[in-house]
Design a protein that fits this description.
CATH superfamily of the largest domain: P-loop containing nucleotide triphosphate hydrolases
Number of helices: 15
Order of helices and strands: HEHHEEEHHEHEHEHHHHHHHH
Strand order of the largest sheet: 2-5-6-1-7
Radius of gyration: 20 Å
Helix content: 40-55%
Shape: globular
Structural class: alpha/beta
Distance between the termini: 34 Å
């Protein structure tokens, strides 16, 4: 990811009402210390969190000193927690581990100048492993003054109930077609490609931008087949996917996204038994991914287990 592609440097498209809600809460003087920003993958949850951070840190003007610091990731009162590189294995971790969360302690011990806000953004909070989640929970239980946490995740049920209870939930909806086109244009898509991707995005342009690559495209086809029809996984397609280091992680991410959306939709329809089944499958998939990564298990076997979990839901 280049600096210009980082969510902190990207404009926010859509979500005007939700941003206005946050601004109103800020202006009220009774701002909640924890916000859980949830919604489908690819709709701009992380961009939204950074937009809120700009309001808190007086960085809305991108050319101001604070604005430039936020875009560059160097603002002293802003900390981003996300998955990091596993230096031993030379690849991105599939979960946020305790070492990723420890810097928050030092960050919060730093006294912000002139009573300014301090902001912690936990991106893809659903990937927190147990130790990291418990460490974050302790911080949320006794937050310092003038500190706000933003957690992004696909659905609140992806996180510990104790963490959810300490956050204000803020759901983001999918984007309109025109907003989707704006995002795609910003990323250099034009002409026929723009029209095709905008139609495929279904309001989540980040998702089609990610799946516009070979590994992700293969994983998307597999995930769609497993989630929509419950078909057995295509052995050749799985083998092709596993030739890529991130193939298993991408498939798990897409399957998890689909299961979370299914659970939410079924619950909204009052089909609580079916929703519970989808939620259990989501939890099983997360556990499988964590264990596979943590103990370096055979991904050939793990990916078939993931396919079985999704197709049985």
């Amino acid at each position: 990811m280049t600096a210009s592609d980082h969510p902190a440097a990207l404009p926010l498209f859509g979500h005007d009402q939700e941003l206005a809600l946050f601004r109103k809460a800020l202006e009220s003087g009774r701002l909640h210390h924890g916000w859980m920003i949830h919604g489908e993958a690819g709709i701009g949850k992380t961009r939204f969190a950074f937009a809120c951070a700009r309001l808190l840190l007086n960085g809305v003007d991108l050319q101001s000193r604070a604005g430039r610091q936020i875009s560059a990731g160097t603002h002293p009162n802003l900390l981003l927690i996300t998955r990091r590189m596993d230096e031993k294995r030379k690849r991105m971790r599939q979960e946020i581990v305790i070492d990723d969360v420890r810097p928050v302690q030092d960050f919060l011990h730093h006294t912000a100048a002139d009573g300014a806000w301090r902001v912690v953004i936990v991106d893809a909070a659903e990937t927190l492993n147990r130790n990291a989640a418990n460490a974050l929970l302790k911080l949320l239980e006794e937050p310092p003054n003038q500190t706000v946490f933003f957690l992004t995740c696909p659905t609140p049920s992806a996180l510990l109930p104790t963490i959810r209870s300490r956050c204000r939930l803020l759901a983001l909806d999918t984007l309109s077609l025109e907003q989707t086109r704006q995002v795609l244009r910003h990323h250099g898509r034009n002409g026929a490609e723009l029209d095709t991707l905008a139609g495929q995005a279904q309001g989540a342009p980040g998702r089609v931008l990610a799946t516009d690559q070979g590994t992700d495209r293969t994983a998307r086809h597999l995930a769609d087949a497993l989630l929509e029809t419950g078909e057995n996984a295509d052995s050749d397609a799985l083998a092709s996917l596993l030739r890529h280091d991130d193939g298993f992680a991408v498939l798990c991410s897409l399957l998890g996204e689909g299961l979370a959306n299914r659970a939410r939709d079924l619950a909204g329809q009052g089909k609580l038994i079916e929703a519970s089944k989808a939620a259990e499958a989501f939890s099983s998939l997360q556990a499988l991914q964590r264990e596979t990564e943590r103990f370096n298990l055979d991904k050939n076997q793990a990916v078939r287990q993931a396919a079985a979990i999704a197709s049985a839901s």
